[in-house]
Amino acid sequence: xxxxxxxxxxxxxxxxxxxxxxxxxxxxxxxxxxxxxxxxxxxxxxxxxxxxxxxxxxxxxxxxxxxxxxxxxxxxxxxxxxxxxxxxxxxxxxxxxxxxxxxxxxxxxxxxxxxxxxxxxxxxxxxxxxxxxxxxxxxxxxxx
Length: 144
Hints:
The structure is a single chain. By secondary structure, the chain is mainly alpha-helical. The chain has helices at residues 13-39, 43-72, 79-103, 112-141. Helix 1 (13-39) packs antiparallel against helix 2, helix 1 packs antiparallel against helix 4 and helix 2 packs antiparallel against helix 3. Residues 1-6 have low confidence and may be disordered.
C-alpha cells in the first residue's frame, strides 16, 4: 500500500518477523521459569537464560529498526504511537538485560521471586509491543 507520495504505509514483513522472536522467546522464558519453580530441576534455568539471551538479541534488532524508522520518519501515521512502541522496546531491552543478569546467578537463586517477576514483566512488554505494532498496521489498513 502506497500513500500519495509513493511511500510504503503497510507493514514491513521483516520487521514483523523480527518482532515475533522476542514475543516467543520472552514468553517461553516465563514458562521455563514456572517449570523450574514447580520442579526445581536446574536445567530449566539454563533454558531460561538462553531464551532471554535470544530475546535480547532480537529485541535489539527490532529496537534499532524502530528507532531508525522513528528518527527518519519512514512511517506515516501517529508519531506518538511509534514513539510509545520504541519506548516499550527500549524498556523491554533494559528489563531483559536485568533479567539476564538475574538468571546468570547460581541456579538455586536465579529464578525466585525477582527472576519470575522480571520474566513476567518482559513477557508483558513484548506482548504490549506486538499489540501496538498490530494495531498500528490495522489502523493503516482500514484508513484511520
